[in-house]
Amino acid sequence: MVARYIEIKNSIKDDILQKRYQVGEKIPSERELALIYGVTRVTLQKSMHLLEQEGFIERIHGKGMFVARVIDDDVYMLNNGAGDSVLGFSREFHHQAKISSQLITHQMLCATPEIAQQLEAQPGQVLHYIRRVRLIDNTPVLIEDSWINAAVIADIPNTVLDGGSLYEYIETYTGKKIKFYNSVIEGDLFTKEMADMLGIAPGVPMLKVSGVTKLEDGTAFNYSLSYNRADKFKIKNNWVGK
Amino acid sequence: MVARYIEIKNSIKDDILQKRYQVGEKIPSERELALIYGVTRVTLQKSMHLLEQEGFIERIHGKGMFVARVIDDDVYMLNNGAGDSVLGFSREFHHQAKISSQLITHQMLCATPEIAQQLEAQPGQVLHYIRRVRLIDNTPVLIEDSWINAAVIADIPNTVLDGGSLYEYIETYTGKKIKFYNSVIEGDLFTKEMADMLGIAPGVPMLKVSGVTKLEDGTAFNYSLSYNRADKFKIKNNWVGK
DNA sequence: TAGTGGTCTAGACCACCTG
DNA sequence: AGGTGGTCTAGACCACTAG
């Protein structure tokens, strides 16, 4: 059951990505598009506001809506607050490159008070602890630690951890969608130990991203901490006022 | 002319910040709040969706709306995609600390092709080039380079660059609000030259943030590049599905 | 079953931009 | 003046959660 305004948003996003509109070009007005898609203006506006937040169009009061120039780049972009790159490394990049994982460890342990608090669970709660090195085209680019509440996801097959999408597995397993991801980005340097795992020199800059993921029913199931090579990743952000 | 849904959003945000609701507590339903504020559900929902994007509440289908735990921290948070910290360093932090600036240079120059493209202007367009070191409680924490289109803002008094808010000045000067800020975050290390300007050791990690700022009529007026001490800043991000 | 958020309609009026 | 996006109303029905 996909909402109509999501379908319309994706349809127009596709038009932009397929270059059916040129960069900077004015697209049809809200009233025209509402007529075309057979919805009211309110519904169409929901689509267009989303498209604006995702950085594909700019809405200018009194003028119209215009296709934004979209930045393409040589490095990998982790989109913030827009798009779906939040929904997992595999899902995001597997179309443009070969994604693989090296499972360092997968064990069950009890939550420390700190992690329990992040997961809104009791200290001592049984968790999966997973450490993976992730590779793009066979080059190691990041280390990711995940703590996953075993009360929410009891079993995690190692086949999922090798190459599959963990988030996709969880959505299938629970029958619920992922709705919240609250994260914090920090800059730091790789320690020798971590640099060795990635096969790079120590003292290389990194982007550290930590955060909690929740399902649509509010269940916090995953706390993760990833250490990303700063020469391989950038984070894009589109802020829109009001 | 402030929209009703913005007023309502701020009113409820204030209730949360003033602890009139406890963390995790359920707040009144949409229908109740719509009645209280004398608006329809559609209007109230706009308020609550904003509040959710800003990370203050979580909306759970079938259950209700709940106050999110808000992360307070010792370091300074640059909020992404939510809140207004995008709208300038001064405006964001002057309530919690003494903000000052050290003006390194302010000169007029002609746009290179690269910067002209960012500003959607012609190469050779006259620009302000401004380099400032910014301080929190007299500690230098970042270096910021700005290129501002002189065709949009002709005069920039040095009093504004010293301690005032540049963005506030621009909104007053042009009579328009800032609507877009598209930025990219990268991790890197401070060079010796930059480290010297901040009085720190070279090789310290930094968060580099670059981006273009536009007014509500779509005018790109500012391209900026800031080099932030990674031990002083974090960047927060709230992603909400759908 | 009752209450919650999620979606959608068919209008209306306002604010901004251009000719 | 005419077209654009921005806001708002007063309903309706659907999907999810709980007791």
Number of strands of chain A: 11
- Kindly give the count of domains of chain A: 2
Helix and strand succession of chain A?
Answer: HEHHEEEHEHEEHHEHEEE
Number of helices of chain A: 8
Give the helix level of chain A as a range of percent. Answer: 25-40%
CATH class of the largest domain in chain A: Alpha Beta
Instruction: Please identify the structural class of chain A as seen in this structure.
Output: alpha+beta
Biggest interface, residues from each chain? A-B, 50 and 49 residues
Distance between the termini of chain A: 30 Å
Report the CATH architecture of the largest domain in chain A. 3-Layer(aba) Sandwich
Gyration radius of chain A, to the nearest Å?
Answer: 20 Å
CATH superfamily of the largest domain in chain A: Chorismate lyase-like
Multimerization state: homodimer
Strand content of chain A: 35-45%
Low-confidence stretches of chain A: none
Instruction: Sum up the overall morphology of chain A in one term.
Output: globular
Q: What's the rounded overall pLDDT mean of chain A?
A: 92
Biggest β-sheet of chain A, characterized?
A: 6 strands, antiparallel
Secondary structure layout plus pairing:
2 copies of one chain form a homodimer.
Chain A: H1 4-17, E1 26-27, H2 30-37, H3 41-53, E2 57-60, E3 64-67, E4 76-80, H4 89-93, E5 99-110, H5 113-118, E6 126-136, E7 139-149, H6 158-162, H7 166-174, E8 178-189, H8 192-198, E9 205-215, E10 220-229, E11 233-240
Parallel strand pairs in A: 4-11
Antiparallel strand pairs in A: 1-3, 2-3, 5-6, 6-7, 7-10, 8-9, 9-10
Chain A binds a DNA duplex (19 and 19 nucleotides) through residues 1, 3-5, 29-31, 39-43, 45-46, 48, 59-65, 216-217, 242.
